[in-house]
Amino acid sequence: MTLRLGVPNKGRLNERTIELLVKSGIDLGEDIGRRLYLKAKNQDIEVIFVRAQDVPVFIAEGAIDMGITGIDETAESGRDLIKILDLQFGYCHLAVAVPEASGITDASQIADGSRIATSFPNLTRKYFEGMGKNVQIITVTGACEIMPYMGVSDYITDLVSTGSTLKTNRLREVGNIIESQAVVITSKAAMEKNGQAIQDVVDSFQSVIIAEDKKYLMADIPKDKLEIVEKIIPGIGGPTVLEIAGNSEYLAVHAVIDGKDVFKTINELKRIGAKGILTTPIERLVN
Ligand code: AMP
């Protein structure tokens, strides 16, 4: 059965999502970006390009089986969906922000009846209800940060990544509604219908994400240093050790190591007399 996968057609999540699909071996051909719909060349997968905001709704309505969107949009939709994988990008949080001149330093100081502009009306309403506050929600589709200065609202809730947009607009963050990042989501109904295909795509994404943090390391080491080397590079279940034809003094060792350990490991190997040390990127790592 054809798997229908929804991906963001623009915005912050678009570029990395496409990269993840391509690295996962889902061949989208040449003209990605200009199409609303693509059939993968090498798998029974249809990729549908939609707004990140619409992904949860389309899954809940059964129009697509799975999709990539943010935790924020998923929670805002209020739909009963299943998160299957954190994708470790698109990090942000939905913040409550006030003009610096307001003197407010915490969301608890916001008065009943205040007007809050937001693109996340449901999450914002729930947040203030949870605080026992009765605020007026004004739904806008973007550019929340200018709403207080335009007189549209008193305060806002908006996504914050680096915080520079708030700063530029002289807004102060006074509350955090939800932490977000890009995720893969699906529904119970889609899992029952197409569970294996969904899991295959998720496993594929995961193998790419894991591999991006790792390097494949190769080095020729003096034979009598093998025990020390096994401590320096434990690898996944220990390094692979190979004889080198015509060289009785050295052994070749291969191992997968964390990218953050490359600098230290190479220096340690050099110190025990290793030669021909090289590292290469890994495309996929399946355990
Ligand atoms: P920043 O200045 O880095 O804090 O980014 C804030 C602006 O980028 C706001 O207009 C947000 O709506 C938008 N933004 C930040 N992170 C995300 C995200 N993960 N997904 C969508 N929009 C985002």
Output the number of helix runs: 9
Shape: globular
Number of strands: 15
Q: Averaging pLDDT over every residue, what do you get? A: 95
First-residue to last-residue Cα separation: 27 Å
User: How big a fraction of the residues is strand?
Assistant: 25-35%
Describe what you observe in this structure.
With 287 residues, the protein is an alpha/beta fold. 29% of the residues lie in helices and 33% in strands. It has 9 helices and 15 strands. The strands form 3 sheets. A 6-stranded mixed β-sheet has the order 2-3-1-4-11-5. Strand 7, helix 4 and strand 8 form a beta-alpha-beta unit. It is globular, with a radius of gyration of 25 Å. The two termini are 27 Å apart. The site of adenosine monophosphate has 13 residues, from strand 9 and helix 6.
Which SSEs are present, and which pair or pack?
Layout: E1 3-8, H1 14-23, E2 37-39, E3 45-50, H2 55-60, E4 66-70, H3 71-77, E5 82-86, E6 92-99, E7 115-118, H4 121-130, E8 136-139, H5 147-150, E9 155-160, H6 164-168, E10 171-180, E11 182-186, H7 188-212, E12 214-222, H8 226-232, E13 240-244, E14 247-258, H9 262-271, E15 275-281
Parallel strand pairs: 1-3, 1-4, 7-8, 7-9
Antiparallel strand pairs: 2-3, 4-11, 5-11, 6-9, 6-10, 12-14, 12-15, 13-14
Bound molecules: adenosine monophosphate.
The site of adenosine monophosphate has 13 residues, from strand 9 and helix 6.
